[in-house]
Design goal:
The chain is mainly α. It is 75% helix and 0% strand.
């Protein structure tokens, strides 16, 4: 996209506004690189806190990180002109996201104030962007005012939390996250009137999934680096890689997820939101599964698979499949209005049964069975597409 040095924001909404098909800009891809670092830090946090409490902390911290990315993405799909003003503000936001990355690993400890203030800074820059858009795009002022009200309340709660002791500050974090996530949902028909740029949105969400899948590949590499080479350990690494590939195919070989954005129907507004919000658990558990795969590979030379590693792996893969099933469910309802394929759901149930009954299984057997199950889902998907 070619723009002048300084251009005011303009409305870039809908799929049939006469505008050319839009793809992610180089600047958006550069912005995404910052989140590669944050996701890696979150994965490292989980790897060093393999417990139920550690898992809850990881999920809790992932939510404001993902919402930071979503906020920038939805602003860009509606108002971005990629001019110097937008770039300068986004670069400021990138510095705030860097601060998130630095503080996230100890966000429930000595870096809690830094984490909260970093998130406030991310949202403050977004508010400035929306103020700029409201000045130039008067017809969308109702939408922008609604966003700014909800997001500014949430940011204010985050800011107040820095003055309170633990655990009250963390309680405010939870309240603020609820306000943040609820704000678009209560906008209702206003969002249908001013939808995001429908050709741009699925590509952007797909790029974030690529980020977390990249962490999965990095986890496999780190696991291989840590092990002593043997036939068993090499086979374990291959099975771990195949799970990552299967998750990639399950998400991206779903044509409905692209076709569903040809139009935005008011009666299906909540189904669109289901598709969007289901990407949060999908990103959370793809990243967590990367940690599980890495730990299984790196510990494959040991005799027994520790229970905490085994359950991190099983729970993450199960929740990945459930999230992928929800994504598929939403897109199927919107595009074809037919019953969705239940193979992802049934596979998640099968892996749950395996997790309960397979405590005695070796590293290789554990990861191989899951890899075969995931590959079966992919094979069925590809066969179904071929026969349609």
């Amino acid at each position: 996209m070619t723009t002048g040095i300084w251009q005011p924001p303009r409305l870039r909404a809908g799929a049939h506004t006469g505008e050319e098909e839009r793809h992610a800009t180089w600047f958006e891809l550069f912005y995404d690189l910052i989140f590669v670092v944050v996701v890696a830090q979150l994965a490292d946090l989980l790897k060093h806190q393999l417990s139920i409490i550690g898992f809850i902390k990881y999920i809790f911290l992932f939510m404001p990180v993902w919402w930071s990315w979503v906020g920038a993405t939805f602003y860009a799909t509606r108002f971005d002109t990629d001019d110097m003003g937008h770039r300068m503000l986004t670069i400021l936001q990138m510095f705030a996201v860097m601060a998130l990355a630095v503080s996230v690993s100890n966000a429930f400890g000595k870096s809690s104030v830094a984490f909260a203030l970093s998130y406030v800074a991310v949202r403050a820059v977004l508010m400035i962007q929306y103020l700029r858009a409201m000045y130039y795009v008067r017809e969308a002022s109702v939408l922008i005012k609604g966003y700014m009200l909800g997001f500014s309340i949430a940011a204010a709660i985050w800011f107040v939390s820095v003055f309170l002791p633990v655990p009250y500050s963390f309680i405010l974090w939870g309240i603020a996250i609820i306000v943040d996530y609820a704000t678009p949902l209560i906008m209702g028909n206003v969002q249908v009137e001013f939808p995001p740029h429908l050709m741009h949105l699925p590509e952007r969400f797909g790029l974030f999934i690529i980020i977390v899948l990249g962490e999965s590949i990095a986890g496999v590499v780190r696991g291989i680096y840590a092990l002593n080479w043997s036939l068993t350990s090499l086979a374990t690494a291959i099975m771990g890689s195949s799970i990552v590939i299967s998750l990639w195919l399950m998400y991206f070989e779903n044509p409905d997820s692209t076709n569903m954005w040809d139009t935005l129907e008011e009666k299906l507004f909540h189904v669109y939101n289901l598709w969007i919000y289901s990407h949060l658990p999908l990103a959370i558990f793809i990243t967590a599964s990367a940690v599980g795969v890495e730990l299984i590979i790196s510990s494959s030379v040991k005799s027994n698979l520790p229970d905490n590693i085994r359950w991190i792996f099983y729970v993450s893969v199960i929740c990945c499949l459930l999230s992928l099933w929800i994504v598929r469910l939403a897109s199927t309802i919107i595009v074809s209005k037919s019953d969705p394929d239940l193979l992802r759901l049934s596979t998640a149930i099968a892996i749950l049964i395996l997790a309960i009954t397979g405590a005695h299984l070796s590293h290789l057997t554990t990861i191989a069975i899951v890899a075969v199950m995931c590959a079966t889902v992919v094979t069925a998907d590809l066969y179904k597409q071929k026969t349609l």
